[in-house]
Each structure stands twice: as C-alpha cells, then as structure tokens.
Amino acid sequence: MTQPILQCKRLTKVFGAKTALAEVSLELPKGKIIGLLGPNGSGKTTLIKLAAGLLKPSEGEIRVDGNLPGIETKAVVSYLPERTYLSDWMRVCDVLDFFEDFYADFDRARAVDMLERLDITTSAKIKTMSKGTKEKVQLILVMSRKASLYLLDEPIGGVDPAARDYILNTIISNYDTNATVIISTHLIADIEQVLDEVVFISKGNVVLHSSVDEIREQNGKSVDDLFREVFKC
Amino acid sequence: MLNKLIKYEFKATGRTILPLYLAVIVVTFINKILFTFTTDTFAFGIPRILSILLYVFIIIAMFVITYLIMIQRFYKNLMKDEGYLMFTLPVNPSALIASKLIVSSIWTVLSVFVSILSVFILAFEKGLIGNIADGFNEFFYYIDLLELNSAATCVFIEMILYAIVALVTSILMIYCAISLGQLFNGHKVAGSFAAYIGIYMVMQLVSTIMLTVLGITNNFVITTPQELTSFLQTILCASLIVYTILGIVFYLVSHYMLKNKLNLE
Lengths: 233, 265
Known about the structure:
The complex is a heterodimer of chains A (233) and B (265). With 233 residues, chain A is α/β, with parallel strands linked by helices. Helix content of chain A is 36%, strand content 26%. Chain B is mainly alpha-helical and 265 residues long. Chain B is built from eight helices and no strands. The radius of gyration of chain B is 23 Å and the shape is globular. Chain B starts with a helix and ends in a 5-residue tail after the last helix. The relative contact order of chain B is 0.10. The A-B interface holds A 49, 52-56, 71-72, 74-75, 77, 79, 81, 83-87, 89, 94, 98, 101-103 and B 1, 4, 7-8, 11-12, 15, 77, 81-85, 87-92, 259-262, 264-265.
C-alpha cells in the first residue's frame, strides 16, 4: 500500500478551554479530491492549519507524506488560507517573482496564462484590487504549483458563481493525478460533482470518511442531502 | 533561502526608506545653497528659518520612520494576514527573524551614516577636512603622551562592538515583545506594548543590580586619564556581556514563539 499523503494519529488541538480537534485519526490517500465538510467552527480550518504547519498539535501527530510539518512538507504543500495574504505594495509580477523564488514547483507560465484568461494583468497593483480579484490571484498562485498536497480553505466562499465554476475547473484541470486536493467548505452542492471522497467533521471529531460513490450507493443520497441529515440542527 | 528573504525585505522597505534618504540629501543641499549664497538679511530670514525647520523635521522623520518600519515589518508581515504566506514558505522561522533583523540593522546604520553625511555637507568649507585631521592628530598625540595606546584601542573596539550589540539587542527586544504580544487574541498591539514594558522593567532591574555589584566590587575613583579608561573598559565590557546575553534570550524567546505558539488570526 502506498503511503497516505496526510496522516493524523489521535490529533488533538486545544485553544485555552476549547477543544478544536479531539483525537482525530485519519488517513487520506494520494491522487484524490477530498471534501472536508462541516459546519462553521467544526475544526476544518484548524485541521488545515495543522497540516500547513501554522499550528502545532496539542497531542498526537500529523504527517504529510510521512514527514512531520516542517521545511520538507511546506515545499510540497500548496496552501490557500481564508485570508488574503498578498502584500499591498506588490504588483502581480512581484508576487509571481516571489513564488518562483521560494517554490521550486511553481509554474510561472501556467500562472500567467490563467491570469490572462481572467483579465488580470501582471502589472496590476494588489492594493487596487477588489477582495474577489485578490482571492482569484491567490487561487491561481496556489494551483500553479505542482504540489503533492493542496489545502484549500474555503476557496469559493467569497467569489461570484461564474468565477466559482472557473475556479473549480481550475482545480480539477490543474492537479496532477498523484496529488491530493483537500477542499474545506460548507457550500457542498457547488463542489459535490468534483469530489472523490468526503470527510465530515463535527465539533472536532471526524464523523464520516467515505468515498462519494459509496455514499450514493449505500444511502441513495447526494452528499449534500447526507450532510443536511447528519448536521441537522 | 535567507538571501531571498533578505532580498524581499529590502524590496519591501527600500521603497519607503530610499526616497527618504534622497529627501534628506535634497533638503541638505537646499540649506547649503541658501546659507552659502544668501546673506543674513531680513529678505532671506524667513526662507532660512523655514529651511532649517524643514531640515530638522526631515532628519527626525528619517529616524522615526526607520524605527516604525522595523516594527511594522515584523508585526504586519509575520503576525497579520501576510503571516499565512510567510510561515508556509519552506523556510525556518530562524531565517524569517534573521532576514528582518539584518535588514533593520542595516537601515538603522545607513540612517546614521546619511545624517552624518548630511551634517558634513552642511559644515563643509575649505580646510574642513584638514581641521578634522588636525583634531584627530591632537587626540592621538595626547593618547600617546599618556601611554594609553593599547587601552584606547581596546575602548574603541569595545565601543563599536557595544553599538552593534546594543542595536541588534534592542531590535530583538521589539521582536520578542511582539511575538509574546501576539498571544493575546484581539489585543495583539496592546499585548505587545505590555510585553515591551515588562521586558524593559526587568532589564532596568538587571542593569541596576549589575551596576550596584560593579560599584561594590570595584572602587572607582577617577582622578587620572588612566583610571578613566579602565573605568570605561569595565563598564563597556560588562554591558557588552549583559546585552549579548539579553540578545540571545530575546532571540530564543521570539524563535520559540514563532515556531510553537504562532497565533495568526
């Protein structure tokens, strides 16, 4: 069996008195598009931040391709946070230089091509961009890397439906068959058709990890319907 | 990777600081021209006063902005949204701290040089360099006369080392305060200020104790130049050791915080 791209063993993260993740054990395979689904505050972002190396586990461990988070994992993880992390003073071309300098797997030509298709010029200043445009630039940067693991935290939350389709197309047409894409969201209906597997997460616990086909066969339901059932208020 | 981080740090800060240096030099020349080619008459009185005020203002602005950029780059680039990018780059936290520390130190030293250059331009007249050389000659003559050559060299080297260590440590103290302050959710700036004041108070306590101990163990009576240099050497040496230790502590605390206790919003 090949090594899982992401592996959590009794992974726990506590913030003060609040437990964000409680002893999560999870193995995610290579070459899949996986939906990390759960209501707000269920621990999705915490799990992604732990995988990206922005947080340290309180207990247990998380491994990316067999390694604890560190320089090696950061070189193969392409992470899209909820925040816009681009520096105001940069132009798009500066950001491209930056990614090219720090990430060996960054494909500049691919990024420029995608930017052109969205009518974003490389001389455009980040400062004058709308929030939605910044998010598009960020997604293009993240998807222009030939990473092993893509961590996309709410990639479609802030953009219009037309751009949403484009973004999803970008994601599925740009990832290598050996790479895994983890998409966290609560807008399930929009992304359901691209997912291979889903992980349902609730109050810091994984309540379901299954392939989308299995869900359809066993429950006769779409992922969206199952989600509404599982997380019924 | 460190050199790439340094490159971007220069890019990010240079676009503010370099125009400032240019402004200082331009204002310096305006003053120089005004004071060389005008006489102290009523007609030129107001332009002269205005240009002096502008000069003082721009020199102060240069130092204040250099200092503010030092703080802002660490806080905004690492602790705010941009931190999501910086801390997911394949680099160690130590490289992030080092790149910012090196670039801030260089800008501070350059700001000092620019202000010295500016004063030199203002004061320049025929024979100035000769006068300065004479002054140094006289100084070294007396050093020689008092047989203080080796001691003076020692004090001189210690003073340069002290300046470097004090600069680096004071920057690391700010980094340390910010990396402690970021733990306070929603009050990160206030937390950083509180941490800074806390560290400052501990430092004052330590240095007071140190000076007291030095005062008790050494009987400083200064009546001769020899006694003065030996006094200076002792004080400088002790300060050098204390600042070096403090600098290392500040670095280690900052590094630990960024590596293990990062708390991005």
